[in-house]
Design a protein that fits this description.
single chain, Gyrase A, domain 2, 4 strands
Amino acid sequence: MDIKILERQEDKVRVVLKGQDHTFMNVLTEEVLADPAVDVAKYVIKYQFSDPELLVTTKGEKDPLLVIREACTRLTARCDELLERVGALNAA
């Protein structure tokens, strides 16, 4: 996944996640919002075939890029767990 940083401040970041759509962006935004250090997390897809832009602001306690990274790590762990459970059902 290609990521382009449009704006970065101590408590704010705007990034474009190339090639993503509403499916991934909804999940990522919800996971970012689960972090208590987050003030705002939202995304916008300006045009039908444009890449989404994610905005994350924190309350100053954490780097917003770190928040996004941690959210992605949690999502990866959940997907791995689901794949493991599906594999176990197939084996049974």
